[in-house]
Amino acid sequence: MTKSYKNPEFMMGPEARPLRILAEYLEPQERLQAQQVNRALIFFGSARLKPGRHDPVNESVDYYDQARLLAARLARWTIDTHTPGQRYFICTGGGPGIMEAANRGAADVDRSLSMGLNISLPHEQSANPYLSEPLNFEFHYFFMRKFWFMNVAHALIIFPGGFGTMDELFEVLTLIQTGKQRRMPVILYGSEFWRRLINFDVFVEMGLISQDDRELIHMVDHVNEAFEVLRAALPDVESEA
């Protein structure tokens, strides 16, 4: 006799899908509470932007290096400014490229602030070596992973990326626009890339979004610029008490 919850064939079958979904809600919830994770700054961007790979249009731009520097500066700022239960964690998708760069920057200052919500994929995605082990998550379901990103997010910093990055960007903007997610700053790093890719002003001109929606988005080109936008936009501890 085998108990149903100890039966691997049943637990991995279609009938037990609700149990697996629930597990991806309950286990991260317990771990995040134990680590006092209440707020995070989310870095999105391509897994393919590795160290030393420069922007083909502007050879002076190394997005990996800049993501690392920005994450380190934010980690230092929150350690100096916030008590442990109020600190902003640096959270990424946990993989290589821009995700690794941001986690590496956080680990340069304090590895305990470096968090990754990984996803099991057939290629590209494996956990980078700069994550805090208690905050190294792996998900099967994309929608549960996105739920936890948004549960802790207080700002998004989005570097150039592919389909996955675009999916994350527009889902977040839709959630904020429809009131399903708190308003937060959305930083698009690398204005040349973003302006070539998406003309956000056309949405406003055609009446498809409001000017308020457009003002959610801040395009920046430098670490200092991104940091100042975030510092001005993020609420202080007292205002959230």
What does this structure look like?
The chain is of the alpha/beta class and 241 residues long. The protein has helices at residues 8-11, 17-34, 63-81, 98-110, 142-152, 163-177, 191-197, 200-205, 211-214, 223-233, 237-240; strands at residues 39-44, 88-92, 114-119, 136-139, 153-158, 186-189, 217-220. The chain folds into 2 domains: 1-34, no CATH class; 37-235, 3-Layer(aba) Sandwich (Rossmann fold). It has 11 helices and 7 strands. The protein has a 7-stranded parallel beta sheet with strand order 4-3-2-1-5-6-7, sandwiched between helices. Strand 1 (39-44), helix 3 and strand 2 (88-92) form a beta-alpha-beta unit. The longest helix has 19 residues, at 63-81. The protein starts with 7 loop residues before the first helix and ends with a helix.
Write the layout of secondary structure elements.
Layout: H1 8-11, H2 17-34, E1 39-44, H3 63-81, E2 88-92, H4 98-110, E3 114-119, E4 136-139, H5 142-152, E5 153-158, H6 163-177, E6 186-189, H7 191-197, H8 200-205, H9 211-214, E7 217-220, H10 223-233, H11 237-240
Kindly state the number of beta strands.
Answer: 7
Task: Evaluate the radius of gyration.
Answer: 19 Å
**Average of per-residue pLDDT values:** 91
Beta-strand residue percentage:
5-15%
Largest sheet: 7 strands, parallel
CATH fold assignment of the largest domain? Rossmann fold
Unreliable residue stretches = none
The N- and C-terminal alpha carbons lie at a distance of 53 Å
Helix content: 40-55%
User: Based on the structure given, which CATH architecture of the largest domain is correct?
Assistant: 3-Layer(aba) Sandwich
- Give the ordered list of helices and strands: HHEHEHEEHEHEHHHEHH
Enzyme class: hydrolase
Family: Belongs to the LOG family.
Protein name: Cytokinin riboside 5'-monophosphate phosphoribohydrolase
EC number: 3.2.2.n1
